[in-house]
Every structure is written in C-alpha cells, then in structure tokens.
Amino acid sequence: MIVVMQTAAEKEQVEGVEQKLVEMGFAPHRIQGAGRVVIGAVGERKVVFPTGLEVLPGVERVVPIGAPYKLVSREVKEKGSVVGVGDLKVGGSEIVVMAGPCAVESEEQLLTIARLVKAAGAQVLRGGAFKPRSSPYSFQGLELEGLKMLNRAREETGLKIVTEVLNPQEVELIADYTDIIQIGARNMQNFSLLREVGRLKKPVLLKRGLAATLEEWLMAAEYILAEGNFQVILCERGIRTFETSTRSTLDISAIPQAKCMTHLPVVADPCHASGTWKLASPLSRAAIAAGADGLLIEVHHKPSEALCDGPQSLTPEKFSRLLFSLQPVAEAVKRTVCVGKDLSMTGGL
Amino acid sequence: MIVVMQTAAEKEQVEGVEQKLVEMGFAPHRIQGAGRVVIGAVGERKVVFPTGLEVLPGVERVVPIGAPYKLVSREVKEKGSVVGVGDLKVGGSEIVVMAGPCAVESEEQLLTIARLVKAAGAQVLRGGAFKPRSSPYSFQGLELEGLKMLNRAREETGLKIVTEVLNPQEVELIADYTDIIQIGARNMQNFSLLREVGRLKKPVLLKRGLAATLEEWLMAAEYILAEGNFQVILCERGIRTFETSTRSTLDISAIPQAKCMTHLPVVADPCHASGTWKLASPLSRAAIAAGADGLLIEVHHKPSEALCDGPQSLTPEKFSRLLFSLQPVAEAVKRTVCVGKDLSMTGGL
Amino acid sequence: MIVVMQTAAEKEQVEGVEQKLVEMGFAPHRIQGAGRVVIGAVGERKVVFPTGLEVLPGVERVVPIGAPYKLVSREVKEKGSVVGVGDLKVGGSEIVVMAGPCAVESEEQLLTIARLVKAAGAQVLRGGAFKPRSSPYSFQGLELEGLKMLNRAREETGLKIVTEVLNPQEVELIADYTDIIQIGARNMQNFSLLREVGRLKKPVLLKRGLAATLEEWLMAAEYILAEGNFQVILCERGIRTFETSTRSTLDISAIPQAKCMTHLPVVADPCHASGTWKLASPLSRAAIAAGADGLLIEVHHKPSEALCDGPQSLTPEKFSRLLFSLQPVAEAVKRTVCVGKDLSMTGGL
Amino acid sequence: MIVVMQTAAEKEQVEGVEQKLVEMGFAPHRIQGAGRVVIGAVGERKVVFPTGLEVLPGVERVVPIGAPYKLVSREVKEKGSVVGVGDLKVGGSEIVVMAGPCAVESEEQLLTIARLVKAAGAQVLRGGAFKPRSSPYSFQGLELEGLKMLNRAREETGLKIVTEVLNPQEVELIADYTDIIQIGARNMQNFSLLREVGRLKKPVLLKRGLAATLEEWLMAAEYILAEGNFQVILCERGIRTFETSTRSTLDISAIPQAKCMTHLPVVADPCHASGTWKLASPLSRAAIAAGADGLLIEVHHKPSEALCDGPQSLTPEKFSRLLFSLQPVAEAVKRTVCVGKDLSMTGGL
Asked: Between the N and C ends of chain D, which has fewer C-beta atoms within 10 Å?
C-alpha cells in the first residue's frame, strides 16, 4: 500500500503515519518527492481496506497495490479453471449453451421447450422456479413444483439444469434438483447466500450485479471459494448505464478483462442484457468472439404468452438459427459449439 | 398502456394487437396518426409488465401509463406518512438524527459513542451487528453479541436503535433487539428479506440500491407494504456514477422527487454516499434544505481505529458542530432539529 | 405524441390541453382510462421537443411517439448506406480497417507506421494532427505540419487518410488534406462543427460522445445530413460508466442497435474504448461479430515512446496478428477483411 | 508517480523501468514488497500522462500522485478566488443569482422577464442568443439580434448579462455584448473555444460536462487560466446517470468537493439539472446549503409558450418565492442573498 501525504503535511504527521504502519505490521519506506512525501508500506496484505490511515492528520489518500481477492486471482492460479457439470466442461474448448424459458410456467411449457432446445443443440436447460421480480404483483414462480418439473425435463431430455436461488434457506432444496445453482444479479452481494452456496459441492453460476465493478464481482466469487467451493462460473449479464435504447449494456470488455484477472470461466447472457431477442444473435456472436466460455439464452415457444421476459426470448426456430450462426464464430476463435437439428427448417421437432 | 405500432405495420397486425388486448381485458382505442397507428388500452392495470405485446408482429414498443406501485403512491395517499418509533416521529416537523458507528466493535466502544451522540442531540443510535462486507476477509460484525450491546446502549441512554438485517432467517432475532430494522443498499431487491420484514410490526429503514431507479426503490417498498407493514422510511445513500472523487453520488434530487411520488418519509445518509467525513456537513445541510426528514451520520470516537468506514466517520466533536450548523438550516425550511451539548467546547462529555 | 394527464386532472384542464394541441396543428384524440385521461395527438411532427405542454395544468407527462431524427432513419431509407472513400466502400461486405498512431509525431514516425500497417493490410491511415487533449500541457499535435506528413504518407503508400478536426475554422484546411474527416467524441455535439462538415462533399467519421445516447448520436449525424452531406460513418468508441478497470465501456450492443435505427454504416474503435492494447484483439473480433463495418486501431512502432495513448497502441506485429485473427470472424458473418503480410513472422517489413 | 510492477516481473524488467525513469528525469526509489516491486519516481511532474511506462515489460500499472492541474489548484492558492463582474462579486459572501429565459425569443419577451427578475432580486440576466440544440430542426437562437436585445435589457435594468458562446469565431462578438461569457456543458472540452475565451479579459462561466469528472472539469478551467484569464466561475449543472425520473442528476457533492480541490467559485444550475421547475426550489436551497456561490435559474413569464426548456422554467412569481425561501438558508450558512419585491403578492410588477 502507498500512503500519499498532503503537500502541506508536517514532519510529525509523516512520522505519525510511519509509526501507525509499524503498529499494523508494515515496514514503511519514505520517499521524499519534489512536492510531498509518499510512504510505501511493505508487508503481507493482512489488513483489510479501508484502513484507518486516511483519517490520520496529513494523509491525502491511500493507494492499495495488490488486488483484494486471492483465491479467484489469475496470479494465484495461472491456468484457467474448468468447471465440470457431469460430463460437461465449462471453460474448456467447447462453448456451453444453456437455454430455456425465463420462468418455469407449466410442465407442458417446460417439456416442450426442453425438447426443442435439446434438439437444437443446447446442453443445459435454464428456467426459474423461484423468480426475483421487481414487482410484488408479478408472477413469482412455481417454486417447488417448478423444481420438480425441471427434474422431469432432465430425466426426459438428459439436459443439465441451471436454476436460481434467492434465499439462503432454500439453497439445500434447490441444490437437490439442479446441476448448477444460479446467483442472480440482484443477489451478487447477498453474502449470506454466497456463503451458503460456498458450502455446496456443486457448480455455481454467479451473475454480475447490475452496477458491480469487476473487482466487486470477483470479491463475491471469493466469498464462495473461501467457503470451499471452487466450482464458480461467472456470468456477464449487462450493466446499468445511461443508455436506454437497450435494457442494459452488455459489458463485452468484461469478458476478456475478467479472464486476465481470474482463472474462473466466464459466460454471457445477451438476452437479459439487451432486453430484446433482436440483439441476441449479434451479441451472442460478439461474446464468443471476445472469449466467452458459454451462453445463456432465453427460449420460449410462445414468447407473446410468456409469463416473464417474453420480449427477450427467442423462438426455438430463431434459437436454432442462432446456434448455426455461432458455429463459424466459435471455430474462428478455435472453439467448438454443439449444433443439432435445424429447427427453422423442420418447423419445430 | 399505449401500444406504438411500427410505421410499416399492416392492418392485420394492428387488429392482432387489438384482439390480444381484448383477451387481456383491455378496451383498445385505435388512433390513426400521420405515420403510424397508436393503440390506447383502457382498463385496470391488472397485467404485469413486461407484457408479451412487444413480441407481436408490427409492434414497435409498449408505453406503460400509470406507475407500477400502488400502496406507496402519493396518488393513493396524498398526505405524507409519519412513521412512529416509540415517541419519535419520522416524517413530522422534527428532523430525526440517527448517529453512531458503522459497526458495533465492543461494549466499551458502543457505549462511549452512544453517550456522546446522545449528549450531542441524536435520537437514534445506529450500529451494525451483522455487516455486509465486500470482502470475506473483512470484519463481519459481532452478530448476536453486537445486538446485546445495542440493547444495553438503549437501556443506558434511552436512544432508539437502528441496525441492519442481512438474512431472512435473522429478521425475527434482530427485530427483538432493534426499534428500526434496516435493509441495506445491497439488499434492496432481496425480495425474500423484503417480504420477511413486511410481516413485522416495526419500522423498516429501506436504503436505496446503488443503481436503483426511484421506481425500483418504490417497488421494493411496495413489497413491504404489500405484506402489511406500512412503517417504511426510505433512505437515499448515494448512487453509483462515473465520478470517482467521491465514493458515490448523493442523489439530492431524489429526496424531493421521491416525495412527489410517494407519501413515505425520506432520510439521507451523507457519510456512506460521499465516503468521507469532510463532506458530511455540507451534504447534511443540503439534504435538510432539499426536504429530508432525517439523517444517518457515522460517528466514531477514534475513526483511525474503526474496524470499518473510519474515513467517513465524524468524531463526536465534529458531529456536535454539525448539529449546531444544521439548526438554522432546519429552521429555514420550517423544521426543527434537536441539538444538545456543544461537545466541541467540552472536549467530549 | 401522447399527453398523459394527472389522475386528478379536471375536465377543464383536459380541454385546455386539447385546445392547445389544436392550436399547435394536432388533432387530439381523448382516451378516457380507468384512472386518468390520455390524449393522443395526431399530426406531422412539426413541433420540436420539449413542447410547452408539460407545464399546462393537469399534465403529468408527454410521450413522443416517432423518432426525432429523419434523414438518418432506417424508416426513411431501408437499405444500408455505403460510404465511398475513393475506391473503398464503408458499409459494404468488406470490413474496412483504419490503423495508425494516435498522433502524428514526425515524418519518420508516420511513414514507418504507415508502411507497416499498409503491409499488414490496413486500408486507411489514421493519425491526429490537431489533438484534443484533456490537459493544456499535453502535446497538442503538429497541426499543419502533421497534415502535410499525412499527405506524404498517402502519396507513398496509397493509404486513405482519416484525421480529426477540432475547430469550425479549420474544416476547410483539414478537408484539403484528408479523405475522411473525423469528429471526435468530445465534439459530437459541437453543432457549429457539425454544420461546417455538413457542407463538405467528403466522408465524415462521427464518433459517439462519451455519454451520448444512441438518439443523441443519430441527431448529431442528422445535423450533418441536414446540411447536405450524406456521407457519414458512425463510430462507437466506448461510453463512460462506473466501471474503472477499463477506460471506458465499449457498447457492443450499440452496433446492431444503431443499425436497426439508421441506414448509416457503423465502425468501432476498441483501442480508445478499452484504453489498453491487451483488449484490442478480443474487442475487435467482438465488434466484427456484432456487425461492425470497420475498425479503427491504434498502431505505433514504439508504444513506450508514443506522445499519446501508447498503452492502447498495438505494435505492428500485434496488429498484423490481429488482422489474421479477424479474417475467420469476418467470414463467419459473411464479410471479408483484407489481410496482408504476417509482420509477426518477418519482424516488420 | 508510482510504478507498480507485476508480481512476476523479472529483475531486468524492474531495472528497465528504473532506467526509463532516469531518462525521463525522475529519481527512482525501489521498494521491494512481499509480493512485488513498487517504484516511486521522484521529480517535478514535467511529464504528461499517460506516459509510455505502462507498456514496458513487467509493468502492471502507473499511479499518478499529484493532481494534473496547477493554476486552478487550491494547493497553489489557498484562498478562494472572487470573480468580479463590475461591482458584483462571485465567490464573496453574497450569493449571486442569475436568472432569465433559456433563449432570447423577442425584445418584448426578454425585457418583460428582465424587469421581473430584476424586481425580484436577481443580479444577472441569463438568456441564450446562440443555442446548442440536440436537433437541427429546433430553434437555434436569434444570434446577433438576440445579443442586441440583451444589451438593451442591460441598459434598461442595470442587470449584468451572461450568455453562451458556441464557436471560437464568435467569442469576440459575444464578448462585446456580455458581462460573463458562458461555455456550455457540451463544449466543456471544446479546447479551441476554451483557449479563445482564455484570451479575454472577462469572466467565464464554465459549465461541467454531462459526463465530466471533477478532474476533467478542472482541467478545462486550467486551459482558460493557462491562457491568462483567471476569472473563471465553475457551474455544476447535473451529470448523466442511469436515473431517468429527473433529466440529469445534480451532483451536489461536487460543490464542496470542487471547493476542496480548487480556489475558483462554484455556482449551480438546478433547472437544467432536474429538467423541471418543480425541483428548482429544493435544489436551489440544497446548493446554497452545500456551499454554492450562486445560482442560475430559468425564468419565463409564459413557460408553456417558451421556445425552449419551458418545463424547467419558473414563472416570475415562483422565482420570487424561491428567493424569499433562499434567504434564511443563505443566512444559515453565513451568506446573504439579495431579495427584492414579492412578485407572488403583486402578481408581477
């Protein structure tokens, strides 16, 4: 850490900071600059930020040097992690496609969509049983019934399941029914929930908060790893900016930038990010081109009747075409993507 | 709701939307404009947004007309609500000052600060027993022990207590020890938690999320009211913007704007917003001048030794001077503020 | 336009708005909703927003229906525009690559880089002679001397030239030396400058402002078209958000979204957006995958000695490798990109 | 400046950086930390950022220590500057109120408003003759005719004039007609314009750009001072954030924060910031309470007929009441404000 003193700081104030650093277990190195003193503090980063140093007289600011995260850091583990979901591998050379409805609405709806996305090439079925909704008057999900339907869809199709958990008390229940447990954007800093999923032996998909910096996102992942669960998949899903023509702004730079900072795999959710199926294809291709390890895509066979997020859901036909268009992009970056039947030709199955 | 059709929309597409609106229980009113058709949909707002209308062929966009919140709306209850905390009234003519350390660190620390802020004029003691920290390696709070210390501080000083809850499972426990239960910014859309505090008969302080729009903030409050708890106090605590010279940007406009939209009282937290005690005084004065009903102020007797947020904590002496400086501002907007001893003169108690 | 009345609006207030609409040349259509009145106003969009309607008694808000831009709109011209730069075509099937240093520093520097980027496959040479710098103490460009050097580079290499103009008075001078005239992000709403380049018969590269919405960007382009110059190329170069780990946030969604709204071609500048050469490759690939018609890439043969923006400049070797990696991505989206020698093999020319 | 090396940096890389620092005129101080090397560079800040150091092998990042601005810095001039406008003083104990229409529309309109705001207590008349408008189809101002009307308004009322300049070529012309020359938010980084007004001997009102950091704002002011004109008044006018219920977000913290960083006076423009006259009063009071030296207020006698920004204009009666409500707030922070007749009682003059 570097302590920058004010230009007007007095000798006693500099010494006061140095003494405090020694008490904190650091070795202080004073650098007398042209205009001011700067103190380098050498030692293990045992102290947690913010320290109290900023309030000492004469101090202008404190500049941390190392990253605050450890276990998730690329510096600690140079090789990219691969998270195994059964026989699937997230972070390997194959792009993993997770597709399905925003919410589980009924067994018929779920199975119909599950069969179609499976046929098109998806490997994981997404679908919410517990839904975080901005309004208390919106459909809140089928809860346990929804979980059971996901289970049946897995049994029938062989797809892996990813579904969201909202409440620490429900972690165990949901973990019994899902292959990947999802922490949504709104819960990225729900630390009780992070700790709870950190005690599981199951992959966690951690969405980036709507206004979370990359550092905060990695710190949230650090909570999970610190509890012993290293199977974390990061998911970029758009950040909130001033732009209103799209629902949020897919931070495409975050994909390669996060991969510089951490060894964890990173996937993208272009449907939630943009809020419209019209951008799903170009943004999916962009995410793969930028290095994403997988995609979450919303698919609904009747988007205009979907109980949530219809406008951002692709029909199975469009989803199928999307996968076909992804294949050459994946190959262009030396990856593969699983592509099944062309549903746009067959008009479904 | 208004459905804006594309300029190129065909007659059949317009009719399709109208038919769908009828099925949804609306009466459609077609307006043939110069360039396009616009359809006004009349009816109770029973349908939850987003509807599936956006995905119908020919539709450009859907414009909601009414606000999505009801119980919190100023349209429903014109007169401002006053939330009673024992004999204290938040939302009345008196500005309510809540002060204390970021975290409860020890009985001695808490009691020392409690006595000082009480002497200076504060009416509520703030202090976290369960702390949401960005890093898993930071001090996470004294938990139950901290709650007991808060209790002792109340018994000794007569101050009311406000403290934060992080986990739906801990709501009951914390409610037993506190007068006002706080939902932090990170949990503003933790809907399980909102529902749980909605079942209490106790005031709730609901902080605005770091990137929450006013509408989302009010929708979060709506969750609490919808469960039966009408005693909600909103707290503006700064939003995340591009500016980095302050920790976040206190959205001062949100205070009068929220008061146009809702009948709930609104308080401000200038310390968290700015991240530095240096701005606490001007921002506190600004918040009162803009119509805030109260303030949350971080006070620590030894900021450089605080286990969290030292840089943004005022010493008791500075806090005392702040209250003195607030008094004429409160009077200028026809409010009052309770001011006690001048601690900056006595050097403490 | 739709005028939404307050729920408490009185009959006279509704009539007052209708009368005002008639005076403004609109035909008002009143829709009596369950809770409030909404008035649809039919007529040509002759009136410029904001109108004065918002301040009439009883009015809650005014919702514009059509887009405020005309000439740039995809509704007006369905087919994408192709901007010709000599024999080059921006907006056609070939991706146009513009590369070069941030600033022209010397004839030797410019010619060296020009030869290298030409050999690697670039078609346009970028380089600033007049530089907009945040600090008055920074290198401000070689001005006229720089323009002459660009001219010599064109003569020698056959590359087209793109360079920035800062001042309406310098438009003519710069236009004499360049093939494409650039309006930088800071000048996107410098309306005097926009009008001046609107009078040229020369392609204009219009960068998006750091905090400009898509609508504002298109309105800035509309200024240029309204003066008679239809040869506008839009350039997405990153927007300002809360994220600080990259210099700005490349708004990748803006590329396909702008292409829905306008017929103008769109290129991307991943170097300025991210502020580091390390992200140039993944972001360039992402931009092409998302539908960009071209790229601006900063290249410097000695980045550590560059007078500006060294950290975001690629070496010629890296630039060459980037082009090779772009080729399969361009093909994946049915585009082509011109690729020359592999400079990373030859160690330069 | 501090150069932070990568944890994996090799000895030769550290030496390379040190050698480069010496070449740049710095004395390097190496600090060997637990995990990495950090190099403190001592010397005058002659070098302009960004330096090329970031691209040297082994370098992780470069942390500047001092502020990049000099002449505007509070470190250079501790005492706050007072900008004299004739006998008026901006930055003294009196709050300076500048009021008037967004645009000069006609002589009758301007003189009517001028008389009313003068009677109410305003000291400066604002009004645009050259208007920066997002749309080329909007009213662009009366230009020279408008300047002449401002002149007549000054002659008749004795009010000082503030009006905006858009183009470097028009600086001289406008300076002949105005007492304070205004640089608008969109032109904050129009460096040609900044240099041109820097050569005047006349006060400049410099609005903060919509997405400008405080540092960038001060750097823009530095451009003006660096040309020799020290009479700069900063104006906070709202920043662009994700919040849409107000037009922009008045950054109230920027007022006291800017005053820590610079000696220049700071005024606020609450009407432009919020986009509605309804928030003008609370935000004006907040700005004064936070330490602003003055206010810009939009006043129009017929807001619903204003050619621009009607919704955010106060009627003269409301403006008069605003001044009355400001007086006790100004006194509360030991300032004064000039208050004239109560127009809300007389119904005008």
From this structure: C
